[in-house]
Amino acid sequence: MKNPQGQRLDPRRFILKFLEIYEEQITDELKTVIHGYMSEVLHSIFFLGNIHRENIMPTDIFEEKELLKLNNKFSKPFNEFCTHLPTRTPFSILLDVVVKIKGSQNETQVMEYLSTLLKELSVPKPTNMTYSNYYTLEATVICICHYERTGGGITKKFYGASLSCKGQRERQVIISLSCRHTWTLKVAYAVALAGEGGAIQLPQTVKCKAFKRNREKDHYCEEPPCTNCINIFKGATFEPCHIEADEDPNWPYGNCAETESLSKLLNADPALCEQVQVLKNNMTADLDLEKKHSLEQCHAQAGRPAYRDRLCANGNDILFFVPQPTPPSPFLAPLYQ
Fold first, then answer.
1. CA quadruple 79, 82, 88, 92: dihedral positive or negative?
2. Distance between CA atoms of 205 and 97, rounded to whole angstroms?
């Protein structure tokens, strides 16, 4: 198993833990759902490894016997990680699974389950000198959003994770692909054109609460929003409140967990999405007029010539991965024998 420059190959442990989660489920419905997520996780991890600066391949992550068994059960991600693009990071997929298992309204249980998982995964505790050398899949921040409707009534809670891929290249690609395919159009616009004054105006009754993992305590603590989120997601109520910082964030727009959770909320509530205003330099903008420019920005980032050939092997076609259908059960037990 390759271990470039002392990197800890967290993907193998992440995948095996995902398989354990599947085995723990009792209902056929949950197992069916999680099987699709497993296929998506494998594809996302293999894709990110392929564009990583060290070009980490599936054969670098698994021993030969494990690789053959996984390939037999999940051939689609093995066949398509060089030709099809992911729509989100592995941790975002894991977060969806945890929310389905514990229930979106059970916030404490969701966060405690995530803390336990990360402790079991033994994600390396970084230092200022060495963290950039680790190839990890952990999201450090989780955001939970909901909407309080006029006259009473609260939507269910929607969860999002900060980008869980190391490296500037990986972040640029995932943000660009998310703008193009995953996030709602208004959120994608705010992220893609943030550098040109793009933003959205949300009702104050949209509530966002973020948590950052405390590595020393293996526990999530409340985290105020960064300046990037305040700049592009105007009007929303953030908990805890924003704290002015001496320096601007050193991560790109779209990196934060608020982006994913707000997109899920707006996607689930079309009436709320209609209330959201599109802004350009603090003035109301026409989304139809700005949409083409926004998509061009996404495409320019996701298809830079320097690594276009490693993003998609089908010329100029952009193909997104579709999770593998569920096979007959049982199907995962042989991996552990």
1. positive
2. 27
User: Closest Cα partner for 261 from 139, 86, 116?
Assistant: 139
CA 15 centroid distance within chain: 16
Q: If you search the block for the tokens 């060495």, which residue do you land on? A: 130
Say how far apart CA 122 and CA 148 lie, in whole Å: 38
CB atoms inside a 10 Å sphere around CB 230: 17
- Supply 245's token pair: 């910082």
Peptide bond into 240 cis (omega under 30): yes
What is the H or E stretch that residue 290 is in? helix 287-302
Q: Is residue 88 helix, strand or coil?
A: coil
pTM for the model = 0.88
Model confidence over 246-276: pLDDT tens digits? 678 889 999 999 999 999 999 999 999 999 9
237-239 and 233-234: which strand pairing?
Answer: unpaired
Cβ atoms of 290 and 186 within 8 Å: the answer is no
- In the chain, the percentage of residues whose pLDDT exceeds 90 is 50
Tally of CB atoms within 10 A around 178: 26
Q: How far apart, in whole angstroms, are the C-alpha atoms of residue 39 and residue 97? A: 13
CA 268 to chain centre: 17
Distance CA 314, CA 231 (A): 37
* Model pLDDT for residues 21-43, shown as the tens digit of each residue: 877 876 777 778 888 899 999 99
The string over 134-165, giving b where at least 16 C-beta atoms fall within 10 Å of a residue's C-beta and e elsewhere, is bbbbbbbbbbbbbbeeeeeeebebbbbbbbbb
76: left (phi over 0), alpha (psi -120 to 50) or beta: alpha
Task: Report the C-alpha gap between 15 and 24 in whole angstroms.
Answer: 15
- Mapped onto helix, strand or coil, the DSSP state of residue 331 is coil
Q: Quick one: how far is CA 8 from the chain centroid?
A: 21
- Could you tell me if 159 and 99 are in contact, meaning their C-beta atoms sit under 8 angstroms apart? yes
